Amino acid sequence: MTRSFIIILAGLAACSQPDSQQRNGGETPLVSLYACGDDQVYHLDIHANGHADTVWHWRAAETENLPPEYLPKLRSIDDCKPSVDGKQLLVSSSSGATVLIDIQEKTALFYASTPNAHSVEFLPNNRIVVANSTASGGNSLEIYDSSQPEHVLFKDTLYSGHGVVWQPSSQRLYALGYDRLLAYELVDWETAPTLRQVDNWTLPDNGGHDLSAIDGDHMLVTTHKNVWQFEASTGSFTPFEPLLDVANVKSVNFNGDTDLLAYTKGEIEWWTHHIYIGNPKVTIDMPNLKLYKVRFTH
Fold this sequence. Notes:
Radius of gyration: 18 Å
Shape: globular
Helix content: under 10%
Order of helices and strands: EEHEEEEEEEEEEEEEEEEEEEEEEEE
């Protein structure tokens, strides 16, 4: 894939290549995020003046310590979440795999076959949770230890699993399915880890797709027809005004302090060629990548 991006800023079109001089010049980017699709992940710095720099790029085939049979399972990457320290990246693929990558070395630290995996999340004690969508052996939540590739520690049913978010402040795991949002607590986490469901809510619209945290009490939920803000303390869903009535949003990220917004939506079947930034508005065109999700780097 070429590293050229067509960027539209405030309605004006301009052509820009990743600009190492600008990046090294010390300008603070508007937003730094990971973008994933096909068998690739990009770390991009996006600037308010219309430049997008490629900070890091990874393709599945260049991964060290990854068994070769995993390459076909990484041809449709659909989530990419960095660790808090920024040194590792969790990657899931609907083609049937989850991997944990050392970002600097591009080495596989963990891998597992995960049927139609659609989202992943870091959990305490170096554990990983995977949400699997509809597939033979899927429709589930799976818990792994990052030191034990291919070994499932715990599995629970979740129809059309599409999103997982860990909330450290409440010590709750939230999981998104087709028409439900579930809350779990961690049980026997030091010995034989399991999950116990402690609450569940019916979505205001079917087709739960993406789940992301705004803060410890608020999350964003995307469905077929809309984007919703969920308040955990009250169990309430309200329309998310910046994306009111925007359908088929595949990923959404929102900073409540700055109102910065980044999202993708299904525009060509399930994928897109665009990253949408809000406040200020910037649209990035990635024409050679079947782009699925973007995630803030933290």
